[in-house]
């Protein structure tokens, strides 16, 4: 069942390798955080510090979880052969962008439009010619 991916071009294959090593990095890093966190605390000062640490760790883990999700869904799109196309306008995403952000789901234009919508909750009348 794995032979359906025959016409993946070299660029996509290279990006898939990049995604896999990136995923590995994120997973290894989160492993490190966890071992750092499991430390018995006796000192109350230590407890304060460790709760701040924990907050930061939670933040980092959230960020990592999102990265992992992005990377995994990019890999799924490679399998589905929908990788490299903008989710919004369905145009091919420029290779330069995919080199910089291999898990990009949208072209720069749509990405910034989406971010603007998310931030402002609606498009402002911006001088977009
Ligand atoms: Zn687009």
Offer a quick outline of the entry:
With about 130 residues, the protein is mainly α. About 65% of the residues lie in helices and about 0% in strands. The chain has helices at about 10-35, 45-80, 95-100, 110-120.
What key phrases describe this protein's structure?
single chain, 2 domains, binds zinc ion, mainly alpha, elongated, 4 helices
Structure in words:
The protein is mainly α. The chain has helices spanning 10-37, 44-80, 95-100, 108-120. The protein contains four helices and no strands. The longest helix is centred in the middle third of the chain and has 37 residues, at 44-80. Residues 86, 88-89, 91, 106-107, 109-110 line the site of zinc ion.
Helix-strand layout with pairing:
Layout: H1 10-37, H2 44-80, H3 95-100, H4 108-120
The helix content is 55-70%
Listed once per kind, the bound small molecules are: zinc ion
Number of helices: 4
Termini separation: 48 Å
| N-to-C order of helices and strands | HHHH
Shape: elongated
How many beta strands in the DSSP annotation?
Answer: 0
Q: Note the quaternary state here.
A: single chain
* Radius of gyration over C-alpha positions, nearest whole angstrom: 20 Å
% residues in beta strands: under 5%
Largest sheet: none
Given as residue ranges, the uncertain stretches (5+ residues, pLDDT < 50) are: 1-5
Derived structural class: mainly alpha
Average residue-wise pLDDT: 82
Number of separate domains:
2
């Amino acid at each position: 069942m794995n032979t359906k991916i025959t016409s993946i071009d070299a660029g996509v294959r290279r990006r898939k390798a990049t995604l896999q090593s990136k995923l590995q990095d994120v997973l290894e890093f989160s492993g490190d955080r966890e071992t750092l966190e499991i430390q018995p605390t006796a000192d109350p000062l230590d407890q304060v510090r460790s709760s701040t640490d924990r907050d930061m760790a939670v933040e980092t883990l959230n960020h990592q979880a999102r990265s992992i999700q992005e990377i995994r869904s990019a890999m799924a799109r490679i399998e589905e052969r929908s990788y490299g196309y903008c989710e919004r306008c369905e145009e091919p995403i420029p290779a330069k962008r995919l080199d910089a952000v291999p898990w990009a789901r949208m072209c720069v234009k749509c990405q910034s439009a989406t971010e603007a919508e998310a931030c402002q909750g609606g498009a402002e009348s911006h001088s977009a010619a």
